[in-house]
Specification:
Number of strands of chain A: 12
Number of helices of chain A: 13
Structural class of chain A: alpha/beta
Order of helices and strands of chain A: HHHHHEHEHEHEEHEHEHEHEEHEE
Largest sheet of chain A: 6 strands, parallel
CATH class of the largest domain in chain A: Alpha Beta
Largest interface: A-B, 40 and 40 residues
Oligomer: homodimer
Number of domains of chain A: 3
DNA sequence: CTCGCCGTTGACACCGGTTTCCTAACGCTT
DNA sequence: AAGCGTTAGGAAACCGGTGTCAACGGCGAG
């Protein structure tokens, strides 16, 4: 193969068109199947042939057509992020992490919000995954906890990684966050600060994390000899507005709680708002601890004490797991890293002043 | 066509497999081309035939394979959102809007962050668009202002909609936000409140919106007979951290500004932080006006006075424009809606106390 | 009655890859 | 030197759709 051959060959290509595998085959003087073998790194190609074909590929700037490849493979090169999390901040952080891991892999990310209250949820997700023949799917809570959705993914033979606060699947398909632990740390912190009337605004019942975080809090308080009064427990929906509403009801109680632990940061901001409206100063009159430690936790005033969940890292790890299963690793044999949250102490919770 | 025929035909399908156009054709007793015509709503199909084929499609639950269709059409059914905006909140809002418009259209959204400082930006975007044969692309600022990127999209014949603060293209390909207007409103507001030493933290130079917002502010102040002292102008990068840095330098001046207008909300929060650190109370000691009016603007304390930009709506409108160009409408003939920002007065800016 | 047109439809090639199956060539053994 | 297994590589079918173009039947016109 001389430069001349290539120049000649090049001249034979239509100008405005991308080179195809046929062009590569013709110019390299091999069959398209051999080119295909080179692309897919088949071991049944002589080194000499491989080099020759690779040179032509580089020279032509050939990249295989994803649609054609997908058609033959019966699989696309798209990763889906299917989420129902109501906190935009949570979603965007996770998405960034997934994109971090996907960069350079040749895979692209398709985002797909959904609603678990929708009776057609399963059908909708089936249509999405089946139509796009997704390479894989990443599921953050709470859609990660929907077994009907998982059943469809298994049926469609679509690899997935679930992110949840309890282990629900094979290690290779799970990313577990020990929410029990994180909430316990928050509970101990508040108890150690002297708080006895502690309020809790939980997430929606549909999220396992709600129960986990509630359980962690309760357990830690019990250890410290503090009982969580159920009147001080309100249910939110992981949104700012729901936090506002729950805080209103809790702070209307007499005596009102001296501290409130919220299921996520978004709701903690709701508590901030209500406290201000009522003329309560945080942390002097009310301590607040959030969960997630979103970037905004350290931007509001007072800086929010929160349980740090490395959401972006979690997105990255989940995507990496997916890539690992692409490389033929058995999901059952992969390890299941547990994400351990940790309390970040800032200014919104302080010792109870007698 | 009787139910029996269908039952028989059904039995002939492999159980685990999706029906293909061939199955539909065989069962309906027509050629696959005719089925294709029905799918694509070709007018050259007799009503009777159309009904018959449609019935079989419904019965079988047939949906065309996007990859095969894409291969033949030389176009996928994916819309790309290519962004370089450093504010996650901005991005997530816009993304939601785009998804609002795409819902039900059969199109999916592929998100693709990028970096304009990357020397390979153009090549990277070309590879992304060309490989995925994107149906269309939505470009928020500042990547929307990169003519080299646009040139590639034109060359690849990929429809796009640009979102920017100045008109740079045909009406059908632009969504313009009149940032000049919004900033002018903010400027008038501050001047009317009696402020004379007004600071401005601009966005990065790469964003046209930075100059637009700066110009709007300057113009409005001039009208009111107030000059914008250039020593009170600092450049930020639309990030919280850059806002902190710029605020530090501005508030270190003597005399310090009595009000600061920031190019976006994210940086306004940076000003909040520095003010607190310096013991300045907003709005008593310092008025602050932001831009974008992100949801968080009304969640922080004090509530941030900000120029409202309906980012989510803009995402939706941009996507709708893209869909319109799909329906064969000529981009040059479409109207070019101008998004008019408006000031939302809250608590962070107040009258100057003598 | 025949021609030509129009609205419909189908046969066949094609999009750009992969998979299946087969052959030729090579190196080794006996 | 013949026999045989192994390996590199090719021809053709296939993945599931769309484009091209010719053919078909029914109609009014000549």
């Amino acid at each position: 193969m001389t430069d001349d051959d290539i120049a000649t060959a090049r001249g034979g290509l239509k100008p405005g068109k991308r080179p195809t595998i046929n062009d590569v085959a013709r110019i390299a003087g091999v069959s398209k199947k051999t080119v295909s073998r080179v692309i897919n790194q088949s071991p049944f190609v002589r080194e000499e042939t491989r080099v020759k074909v690779s040179a032509v590929i580089d020279e032509l700037g050939f990249t295989p057509d994803v649609q054609a490849r997908g058609l033959a493979f019966r699989r696309s090169f798209l990763v889906g992020l299917i989420y129902d999390n109501p906190s935009p901040n949570y979603v965007v952080n996770m998405q960034q992490g997934v994109l971090d891991a996907l960069r350079g892999s040749g895979l692209e990310l398709v985002v797909h919000p959904c609603d678990r209250a929708n009776p057609n949820l399963v059908a909708e997700i089936r249509a999405f995954v089946e139509r796009q023949k997704l390479f894989g799917v990443i599921l953050p809570p709470s859609v990660s906890e929907d077994e009907a959705v998982i059943a469809v993914l298994r049926e469609l033979d679509c690899p997935y990684v679930r992110i949840a606060s309890v282990s629900l699947d094979e290690p290779g398909r799970m990313l577990v966050t020990n929410d029990h632990l994180g909430a316990a740390e928050a509970g101990r912190h508040l108890a150690d600060l002297g708080h006895r009337r502690i309020g809790f605004i939980s997430g929606p019942a549909l999220f396992r994390s709600s129960a986990q975080r509630g359980g962690g809090l309760r357990g830690a308080l019990a250890e410290k000899g503090v009982a969580l009064d159920e009147r001080y427990v309100a249910q939110g929906a992981y949104t700012f507005e729901s936090g506002v509403e729950a805080a209103r009801s809790l702070l209307a109680l007499d005596p009102r709680p001296t501290a409130i632990f919220t299921g996520n940061d978004e709701m903690a901001l709701g508590v901030f708002k209500v406290a201000r409206d009522m003329g309560l100063e945080i942390p002097r009159d009310l301590s607040v601890v959030g969960y997630d430690d979103l970037p905004m936790a350290s931007r509001v005033w007072p800086n929010l004490t929160s349980v740090r969940l490395p959401i972006r890292d979690m997105g990255r790890m989940a995507a990496e797991k997916l890539l690992a299963s692409m490389r033929g690793l058995d999901p059952a044999k992969l390890d299941q890293p547990e994400v351990r949250p940790s309390l970040v102490v800032r200014d919104s919770a302080t010792a109870l002043t007698a």
